Amino acid sequence: MGRSPCCEKAHTNKGAWTKEEDDRLIAYIRAHGEGCWRSLPKAAGLLRCGKSCRLRWINYLRPDLKRGNFTEEEDELIIKLHSLLGNKWSLIAGRLPGRTDNEIKNYWNTHIRRKLLNRGIDPATHRPVNDNPTNHHTTTTATATNINNHNSTLDVATNTTTTISFANATPISHLVKEEVEDDAKHNSDGGERRKINNTFPEIQERCPDLNLELRISPPHHHQHQNNSSSSSSSSSSYIQPQIQHVNYHHQQPLKTGGRTSSFATTICFACSLGIENSKECSCTTSLNVTSSSSTGYDFLGLKTGVLDYRSLEMK
DNA sequence: AAGGGACTCAACCGCCTGGCC
DNA sequence: AGGCCAGGCGGTTGAGTCCCT
């Protein structure tokens, strides 16, 4: 049956945009706002496809775009997010204010891929390029004493910290398949934390300057927050110094599966990492209690009932 | 100076998703 | 329930630029 074309291709310009076209597009969007891209070209007097207008606006003309080179902090954040989310460029872009998915995608393909390869890490899997699963298993068992630096901890329901070790670079989907050890065996704090044995210390030896750990915690409430500074079990004291060097202060809409979520638009990046009410938080409205604390929370924009790592499986 | 390979990044393409009717 | 549509996404392309020989 076929889909109707998004525009009349015979009468549209293609290729690089001219200054005049840019000006027309900017003027139109300033006057009428974004939206209805299909009809925008005609209304704005542009011989362009609506998609092309949208792309030009989003990737180049938008006034809030950050120009210039990526910082080292942005590099590392992209690497971390990519190892979590895979090629979900729009989700990654949602965490980098002023950067577009296209820009990040290009930057990944041209810079970061090479950077990771130079570090001996496969950019697709975030594993060492000469990764050998059997070696991992052996090493893991043999170096259990160092486990706290590398393992992953999960417990959404009890509001504790989730640590995903990117140095280990085991795909998240694999983590859930790992055997979860008995709470009591590994915790002195009442068995609130579960640990997954997933340690590959040799990676750190090879890249001693590389710390790819990202810790994620469920939303904290004020009370909890206040106690966090003295509690080593809380994620807040750990995560805040890590993210302070990146400017997350302006509110960034979270997106889910290609659509801006009406739920998520009220949540800033800090909240998406579970540290709402921290000084990083820029939310103007409070979190939906049901969504955030009762049935789960929007982890990095991936709204889940629980922290379902299977939904984060890489391509 | 010129040729050509490597690199960058804006733009395009096809497909997917969710809303609407 | 199913089809259509608009918006959005990730992959790919290709023109322009840079760099090396």
UniProtKB/TrEMBL annotation:
It comes from the Eukaryota. This is Uncharacterized protein. It comes from Cichorium intybus (Chicory). The lineage of its organism: Eukaryota, Viridiplantae, Streptophyta, Embryophyta, Tracheophyta.
